[in-house]
Write a structure and sequence with these properties.
One of its GO terms (molecular function) is double-stranded DNA binding. The protein is an alpha+beta fold. It is built from five helices and eleven strands.
Amino acid sequence: MIVRSLWKGAISFGLVHIPIKMFAATEEKDVRFHLLHKECHNPIQYQKRCPHCDREVTPEEIVKGFEYDKGRYVIVTQEELEGIAPEGSRAIDIQSFVNLKDIDPIYFAKTYYLSPDQHGQKAYALLRNALQQSDRLALARVILRTKEALVALRVYGKGLAMHTMLYPEEIRSMEPLGDLGEGIDVSEKEQTMAVQLIESLTESFDPEKWQSEHRKRIRQFIDAKVQGQAIVEAPQAPAAGKVIDLMEALKASIQQAKTQQKAETPKKARRKTS
């Protein structure tokens, strides 16, 4: 499969200039449905219409407007936005270095891969090796589509990955959520058993273990319909039951975790010896 770069520029690492290309690192795997006309099953088309002029408008007739007051807009053009873009808009300008554990995951947005371009392999390898040796990631600024983005560069696999990050003002406060249980008394015994349950379920992260069961059932359902087979019904999830006593629920959960671990141990042993 041909992988096309989304962006070309350079990493600015002090006075070191590293030409790079940027690629998408992730892709959506959701099962997508088309919206069809119920009578003839043709795909629905959408038209861009102006309700004032009561007619369809072409792309050339559409401009960008910012609503600064209810129903009042200021018009801006692409040229105007590009004119106020900061200098060095084709550079990923490294500002500082931090430890990964110092960044809460809520700040990470989207991930891209970076590869060297125009004979920049040596400088690229220098930055990658330095990040790996220091166990740091780099914080940088870059202009992507006229929007300034805060990004984090880190070693991933044999290369470099770039995570776009959210600014603090883009993170919603939890205050409106109301009562989150702060100040509620939890007994030492309950706390100990909850930690014990966490310990019993703790394991190394194996991404291959985590699959979307819902997506798998949708694909089975669709395949069955295409082949004219009976509809595959989703298995009923076990009833959660009413929690009468927190301690009893914790004891039952720990016992369930132990039983599950015993059942999985022979499978893991077989995989290691096979």
